[in-house]
Structure formats: C-alpha cells, structure tokens
Amino acid sequence: MSGPLWRDISETLRSRIESGELAPGAQLPTEQDLMEEFGAGRNTVRQALQPLIQRGMVTAQPGRGTFVTEKIDPFVTTLTENPRTGFGGGEGAAYMSEASLQQRLARNGPIKVELQMATPYIARGLGVEPGTPIVSRHQERFIDGRPWSRQSSHYPMTLVEAGAALLLQAVDIDQGPVAYLEDVLGIRQVGYQDLVLGRPAHPDEAAFFRLSGPGSLVFEQRRTAFSIDGRRIRLTVTAYPADRNRFLINEGIVPEDAMSPPPSKERS
C-alpha cells in the first residue's frame, strides 16, 4: 500500500466490502479496532470512512456504529385510488393489498393513541383553532421486516363525542377508520388532498429508519380528508424514508395493466 494512510484504510475496507468479506448489513469494525489494526489515529480512521459513506457503501448509524449498506428494493405506493378496485392511497387495506401485489410482506406495528391539543400545524390541517382537543393515532409500518413508514392520523375530538369511540382505542378498526366514520356517524369521506414534501429526517426518524445521519431525507405526505359537506375530518401525516420509497400517480384513463406497479423482481 502507498499514499496517505487514511486512503489505504479506505481502500482496504472497500475491497473487503466488494469481495463480500463484509456482507451487506454487516457492521464494520469499531473505530478502536481499526485504529489498532492499522496503527492509525481516530481522525485518520474517520477520514478513511468518509469516501465510503459518500459512495453509499456504508452508513453511519448514531449510537450503533457503521454498517455496510444493504441493497434496497424500493416499495411503490400508489397515491391515487384505482377507480375499479378502490385500492390505492397508501392507507390501511390499500397499503396491505398493494404490498401483496408487489410480492412483498407488509406488517403494521401496534397502534398508539394520544389525546392532545392541536398544534398550529395540525390545527391548520383540520381547520380548527390551535389548542382544540384532538385524537391522534400513531402506527409504524414495515415491508419485508424493514421499517418503511411512520403514520399519524389526527381527528377532531368532536367525532368521538358524537359517537366514534373506537378512535380512542389502541386497536385496529376492522373496516378501517374511513368506513367506520360512515357506519357510525354517517360521515362519508368523499375526497382527500395530498401535499408531499421532502425534508431532512428528524433524529427519532433517523434512528427508527436506520438512516445514516442528519443529511438523510424523508418524504412527508400530509393528507387532508374531506366529508361531503366540505368539513376536514382527518389529517394523516406519513413519513417515508427517501431511500426506499417511490410513488405512483394515475390520472385519467390508464390501462389496467399499468394501474399498479409490477412485482419488485420485474422492476429494474
């Protein structure tokens, strides 16, 4: 080996990754181990890791270590509803069905219910005053065992007071919240508006999604649902890490075989 020591260390680690000696998902030796192996200082070891991080070959996970990047097969969420099947939108049964169509294994974490006062951000989405009582239902979602999204749905407390008591329970609503509100209260969701934006991941999101650092990006989908009389009955906010999610939007007349994404093994 020749040249700066940090470059020699970096090239050695790159060779181990490319040969499979360090497999996808494997943890790299600790900084202390690398310092002892190569007789290098801590700053030299950290400098050696930077080219690997920049190439996407490894990811540094705060508090856990540095890991060989796993090959990610993106999951495609159809944001629009299929007019023939009713599937689409990335929620509930539609999300599970779409995973099945793509030959992926979907799993939802337990539901957590929170009673809170609407923040200005949530209040704008629900069309209420800040400080208005609301019910929030939070859930983490997984594809093939990997964290894929985090979703929070916020409802005005007036829906609970009117009789939609299941919103307060930390259980799955069998028919889904949309059908439940129609069955119990006669409030029918007739449309929704999506706002999708990109932003840096919050620290808790980076930890949950196992992202590499403060520069990691997530897509945030803000969905406002409307009843037939124009009321805002729900605000659902979903965070999707940008490295493993894609979105599909259909508009107008789209052939049946193009309405949904193909199974992952058929995508390049």
Automatic annotation (TrEMBL):
Protein's UniProt keywords contain Transcription: yes
Origin: domain of life: Bacteria
Pfam assignment, any one: GntR
Protein's GO biological process: negative regulation of DNA-templated transcription
Family annotation (SUPFAM superfamilies): Chorismate lyase-like, Winged helix' DNA-binding domain
Domain (HTH gntR-type): residue spans on this chain: 3-71
Gene3D superfamilies (UniProt xref): Chorismate lyase-like (3.40.1410.10), Winged helix-like DNA-binding domain superfamily/Winged helix DNA-binding domain (1.10.10.10)
Protein name: GntR family transcriptional regulator
Species annotation: Actinocorallia herbida
Phylogenetic placement of the source organism: Bacteria, Bacillati, Actinomycetota, Actinomycetes, Streptosporangiales
